[in-house]
Write a structure and sequence with these properties.
The complex is a heterodimer of chains A (145) and B (305).
Chain A: H1 2-26, H2 28-34, H3 39-47, E1 62-70, E2 73-82, E3 85-96, H4 106-114, H5 126-143
Antiparallel strand pairs in A: 1-2, 2-3
Chain B: H1 13-18, H2 21-37, H3 42-66, H4 75-87, H5 94-110, E1 112-113, E2 116-117, H6 121-133, H7 150-164, H8 168-187, H9 197-200, H10 205-216, H11 227-247, H12 253-281
Antiparallel strand pairs in B: 1-2
Classes of the chains: A alpha+beta (145), B mainly alpha (305).
Chain lengths: 145, 305
C-alpha cells in the first residue's frame, strides 16, 4: 500500500511537471514579446544611478505617447515637449501588479528635472521603474529631431 | 495549542520539536529566509521578519495573559510572523508589518472552529494588508527576486515540508490544477494585460504559487487530513485562484483562493460532524474529514502558521 501510494505520488509529480512544462513552452512566445525592451533602455537605466543629468537633447514640440512592457505588466506614458524640452510627463495607463503610487509622481518628476529618460529606479519597484523608463525612452525617440 | 511530538521520548526536546509539523516548517523556512536575505532586498526583508516575529510573539503573549494561560514561546505565532515577513515587500513600512501580523493573529484567535483557526492566519493578514492598505507583496523568501535557478532551491525546501507534514497530495492537486488552468487560459487567450498566463508560469509569480503551495496550503489546522480531502482542497484553492487571476488580477488572488478553501474545509468538517450527531461525535478526535480519514492519515494537529 505504501509503495503503491508512493508510486502514485511519483506519477502525479511527473504529470504536474509535464503540465507546467507544456504551459511554459506554449507561452514562451508571449513571454518573449513582453520582454522586448530596447537593450539600451534596460542596461542604461540601472547603470546611470548616481550620474548627473545628461546633456539636453533637441526634441520636436508636441505630445508623444509610448508604452513599456515586461512580464510584470505594462504602462503607458504621455510626454509633452515644449520649446524643445520635456515639459510634462504623465502616466496614462498603468497595468502593473504593484500600485502606481510607488513610482508616480516620483519618476515623472525626475524626468522633468533631469530632462532625460535616465532616472533613478525606485527600489522595490524595479520592474515598474524599468517599464516607465522604457516608455519615456520610446516617447522621446519619437520626438527626436 | 497542544503540541504533539512524534519523536521518541529519549530525544532532547528540541530534536523532538524538529520532528513536529511546526518544526519541519521552521526547519525549511528559516534557512530559506536567511538564504533569500543574502540577496537584493534581503536585509530589509530580514528586518521585516524580525519585526513580524517580535510582534507575533508579543500579541500571542498578550492573548495568553488575557486568557490566563501559561506563557510560553508561541511557535505558531512565530511561523505566522515569519511567513508575513517573508511575503511583504521591502517597501512596506514597519508599522504595517506589525499591523498585518496583528490582524493575522486576531483571525487565528477569533475565527475558530473548536480550537482550530478557520483561516490560515498569515493569508488572512496579508489579504487585509492588500485590501486595507494597498501594500505590496514580493514573496521575496520564495526567491522571487532571484533568477530561475532559485526555483529548484524553493522546491527542495518545499518538498521537505510537504512530505514531512503529509500534505504532498494536496500540494500536487493544487499545483496540477493551477498549472493546467493557466495552460487553458493560454490556449484560449484569456487573462488581463497585466496578468498573462506567461507571467503566471515564470519568475516571480511562479515563486509565489510555489511558496503558497508548500508553506501556507500545508498548514495542518486549516487544511484537510485525508487524501480525498486534500485533493478536493487543493483543486478548489487552485480553481478559485486562477478564476480571480483571470478576472481581476492583482496580488491577492491566491490568498483569496486559499481562504476560500479554508472556509470550505471548515464548513465541510462542520457538516460532516453535524450529520454524525452528538452521540457519534462523543469522544472522537477533532479532525477534518474524519469520515474518510484512517488513523494513519491523521496528522498531529498543531498550531496554525
Amino acid at each position: 500500500m505504501s509503495l503503491s501510494r508512493s508510486t502514485l505520488l511519483g506519477i502525479c509529480t511527473v504529470a504536474v511537471a509535464a503540465i507546467y512544462s507544456a504551459g511554459y513552452v506554449y507561452t514562451e512566445p508571449a513571454a518573449q514579446a513582453n520582454s522586448l525592451n530596447p537593450p539600451s533602455a534596460r542596461s542604461s537605466t540601472s547603470s546611470v544611478k548616481g550620474q548627473t543629468a545628461s546633456r539636453p537633447l533637441r526634441y520636436r514640440d508636441g505630445i508623444y505617447t509610448a508604452s513599456g512592457a515586461n512580464p510584470y505588466g505594462t504602462l503607458s506614458v504621455e510626454v509633452r515637449i515644449a520649446s524643445g524640452k520635456i515639459a510634462g510627463v504623465r502616466i496614462t495607463s498603468y497595468q502593473m501588479h504593484y500600485p502606481q503610487a510607488f513610482i508616480d509622481p516620483v519618476m515623472p518628476k525626475q524626468v522633468l528635472q533631469r530632462q532625460t529618460w535616465r532616472v533613478y529606479i525606485v527600489t522595490g519597484a524595479t520592474a515598474s521603474s524599468y517599464n516607465f523608463a522604457e516608455a519615456v525612452y520610446r516617447a522621446l525617440a519619437k520626438a527626436k529631431v | 495549542m497542544t503540541q504533539t511530538s512524534t519523536g521518541p521520548r529519549h530525544l532532547p526536546a528540541w530534536k523532538r520539536f524538529l520532528k513536529t509539523p511546526k518544526g519541519y516548517i521552521l526547519s525549511a523556512l528559516v534557512p530559506l529566509s536567511l538564504f533569500a536575505g543574502g540577496f537584493r532586498q534581503g536585509p530589509v526583508g530580514l528586518l521585516h521578519v524580525l519585526v513580524a516575529v517580535a510582534t507575533a510573539l508579543g500579541v500571542d503573549a498578550g492573548v495568553a495573559m488575557w486568557l490566563r494561560r501559561r506563557l510560553g514561546f508561541s511557535t505558531g505565532g512565530a511561523i505566522t510572523g515569519l511567513i508575513v515577513g517573508d511575503v511583504l515587500s521591502g517597501l512596506t513600512p514597519l508599522y504595517l508589518v506589525s499591523v498585518t501580523v496583528t490582524v493575522a493573529l486576531a483571525s487565528k484567535h477569533l475565527l475558530k472552529r473548536g480550537r482550530k483557526p478557520i483561516f490560515n492566519p498569515a493569508a488572512a493578514g496579508l489579504l487585509m494588508a492588500i485590501l486595507g492598505f494597498g501594500s505590496a507583496q514580493s514573496w521575496w523568501a520564495g526567491l522571487s527576486l532571484l533568477p530561475l535557478w532559485g526555483v529548484p532551491v524553493l522546491i527542495l525546501a518545499g518538498l521537505f515540508v510537504a512530505i514531512r507534514v503529509k500534505k504532498y497530495p494536496q500540494v500536487l492537486a493544487f499545483l496540477g490544477t493551477y498549472f493546467l488552468l493557466v495552460l487553458i487560459m493560454a490556449l484560449f487567450h484569456l487573462g488581463l494585460a497585466s496578468n498573462t498566463p506567461a507571467a503566471a508560469l515564470r519568475v516571480p509569480f511562479v515563486n509565489s504559487a510555489l511558496f503558497l503551495a508548500f508553506f501556507m496550503l500545508t498548514d495542518p489546522p486549516t487544511s484537510p487530513a485525508s487524501m480525498r480531502g486534500q485533493i478536493q482542497f487543493g483543486v478548489l484553492v487552485a480553481f478559485s485562484s486562477v478564476v480571480l487571476f483571470a478576472a481581476l488580477g492583482g496580488l491577492s488572488y491566491m490568498l483569496i483562493g486559499l481562504l476560500t478553501g479554508n472556509a470550505w474545509s471548515a464548513g465541510a468538517a462542520w457538516w460532516s460532524r453535524a450529520r454524525r450527531g452528538p452521540v457519534a461525535n462523543k469522544g472522537m478526535r477533532t479532525g477534518f474529514w474524519g469520515v474518510g480519514a484512517s488513523p494513519s492519515q491523521e496528522q498531529p494537529q498543531v498550531g496554525s502558521s
